[in-house]
Amino acid sequence: MADLEKPLDDAGLTNPAVREYVLHWAQYLGAERIEVVSASDDARLIQESLAADEIQPAGEGLYYSRSYAKDTARSEERTIVATSRPEDEGVYNNWRHSDEIRPVVEGHMQGAMAGKTMYVIPYLMAPPGSPLERYAAGVEITDNRTVCLHMIRMARVGVDLINGLADPDMFVRAVHVTGDLPNLGQGTDDDQRYFVTVADERTILHFGSSYGGNALLGKIAHGLRQAAYDGWASGEFLGEQFMLLGITDKETGETHHICGGFPSASGKTNLAMTLAPDALGERYHVSFYGDDIAWLWVAADGQLYGLNPENGVFGVAKDTNEDTNPTALDAIEEGTQALFTNVAYNESTHEVWWEGKTPARPTDPTGWRDWKGELIADRNPDEAGDPWAHPNSRFTTTLANVPNVAADFENPHGVKIDAIIFGGRTRDREPLVRAIDDLAEGVYDGLTLGAEATAAAEGVEGKLRYDPMSMRPFMSYPEGPYAAHWLNVVGAAKDQPVFAHVNWFQRDPEDGHFLWPGYRENLRALLWLVEYKKGQVTGRRTPVGVVPLREELNLDGLEIDSDELDTLLTIDVERWREEMGHREEHLKQFANLPEQIWEAHRRVAAALEAE
Ligand code: GDP
Ligand code: PGA
Ligand code: MN
Ligand code: MN
């Protein structure tokens, strides 16, 4: 015991509740030694990881890592929310009684760190001093040094952050054990992985993965699942899978803040990093606040605020290039200390590459290995077309590296929210943008978000499914109370935000090309929404919201086919009528859905019938 306590003393870890938690788990896991991690340890940890061949150099101040080939995305099936209250069971949270599931996952963990170092990562999700700070503290325990490197980039990490907690016991206990990855039966009937959030005990127990979405416990498990539960249980806030950005009109000096949810790998990071199109750059600037999580609450002044609890970006690499997202490329250039995961890597030149980074693959395959670690030069002809990078390969970098990060991105009081948007990959039906003025209709729209799933989750890519508010994989409590909590929190705000549904992914039914150019051009839809909110444009009222008139959209410098633009701004009433039946079935699954949501559904359905 004395041996195990020494590293805690040396690191200056004084919080007695944290010490007790750490020592308990060190013994249970059988850890050989303990190491307490702070952000200031990064350079040393990088050197150790390089020396141990856990990461490879990818240019000056850049690093590469490859995860086990069957461990490259979140596993929704193996993700469980547990509590001691059966009434917490929802449609999507895979609820289990904590008495039943806790021993199972703990059983897998027992003794699993024998001979290993147990890293202790004290972190804060939210800038210090925020009104939600008491929900932000956590301590991740992990056996994986690369997880430490990611956590240092994605969260605020340091002993000082948890020593002085107002309530020393109020921190999330987050335990991560990688497990013996080649022997966990991933995707089989004998799958050994468990990703459990014991929400009413504020305890996270993840076993069987080192992929970021499963292993960076501050991010998704705490920042989304636990935070959503805490926000509901306390009645104080919403924890959502939202990006958060500001749009400044340099002529008037005004800034509007927009947050919004799109399913994983559906454009949040790109939108928050948007560089205005060249023709609009003189006048407008987009500032980045967050790209994956926002916590929303009504502050003492009666207004709705949002903040990003994270300190970094865990971005999808695919198709990131100078045209689509120059800002992201700046955030991962040499010297940024960025990490790349599961992209292609050249072991001679230390370059990285992913599909869409350049129009063509590197011509000389010498030294290149694909995301599985296989030499490109050794590929069989029938594998020639396989991607070099995993479709869910990622880059990890801190917010401070993002060129358009907002000047006040660390303001713990967040920013006032003017608009809330939902979107996703929807190949038809959904226009470019439709604005919704009414709170219940906005919440209804979020609850009925239907989109194609992506490679960010195992085994569901391309599947069309409902993904309420883009929270389906992160939902921690039942959907009826979730909707009611939304109505309560946002409904309490003095100035109501405008809602909108956006879609950058409508396709031509014949050849499948995207009708809207997307990326930087998406700002045009958001500018219209801001003008709509201000009453400067009126749009055209449809049964499902207000769509822009063609002349209201700022199209300066944009080349777009006139008929395709018409399609993007048109409501296909027949297709929408058909959709309403599916929505009804979808909503019927949710017990105790507030009557206002059903009323919104019936209003939209009646308006469609009257068309
Ligand atoms: P996030 O996971 O929701 O943050 O999504 P990202 O912004 O990382 O984007 C996921 C994938 O969608 C990447 O491959 C992007 O290149 C692509 N993407 C993002 N925005 C757009 C867009 O406006 N149009 C198209 N066609 N693709 C986009
Ligand atoms: P994403 O974040 O939404 O940027 O893809 C990771 C995830 O949700 O798995
Ligand atoms: Mn996400
Ligand atoms: Mn993202």
TrEMBL record:
Pathway(s) the chain acts in: Carbohydrate biosynthesis; gluconeogenesis
UniProtKB keywords: Cytoplasm, Decarboxylase, Gluconeogenesis, GTP-binding, Kinase, Lyase, Manganese, Metal-binding, Nucleotide-binding, Pyruvate, Transferase
Alphabetical list of Pfam families matching this protein: PEPCK_GTP, PEPCK_N
Positions of substrate binding: 74, 211-213, 264, 392-394
Positions that bind GTP: 265-270, 394, 425, 519-522
Keyword Cytoplasm annotated: yes
Domain of life: Bacteria
TM stretches of this protein: none
Gene Ontology CC annotation, any one: cytosol
One GO term of the biological process aspect: propionate catabolic process
Enzyme Commission number(s): 4.1.1.32
Enzyme class at the top of the EC tree: lyase
InterPro entries membership: PEP_carboxykinase_C, PEP_carboxykinase_GTP, PEP_carboxykinase_GTP_C, PEP_carboxykinase_GTP_N, PEP_carboxykinase_N
Residue ranges of domain Phosphoenolpyruvate carboxykinase C-terminal P-loop in the record: 238-604
Names of required cofactors: Mn(2+)
Gene3D superfamilies the record matches: 3.90.228.20, Phosphoenolpyruvate Carboxykinase, domain 1, Phosphoenolpyruvate Carboxykinase, domain 2
Domain Phosphoenolpyruvate carboxykinase GTP-utilising N-terminal: 20-231
A GO molecular function held by the record: phosphoenolpyruvate carboxykinase (GTP) activity
Record field: catalytic activity: oxaloacetate + GTP = phosphoenolpyruvate + GDP + CO2
Active site per the UniProt annotation: 266
Keyword Ribosomal protein: no
Locations listed in the record: Cytoplasm
Role: Catalyzes the conversion of oxaloacetate (OAA) to phosphoenolpyruvate (PEP), the rate-limiting step in the metabolic pathway that produces glucose from lactate and other precursors derived from the citric acid cycle.
Known partners and oligomeric status: Monomer.
Similarity comment text for this entry: Belongs to the phosphoenolpyruvate carboxykinase [GTP] family.
Name of this chain's protein: Phosphoenolpyruvate carboxykinase [GTP]
Biological classification of the source: Bacteria, Bacillati, Actinomycetota, Actinomycetes, Micrococcales
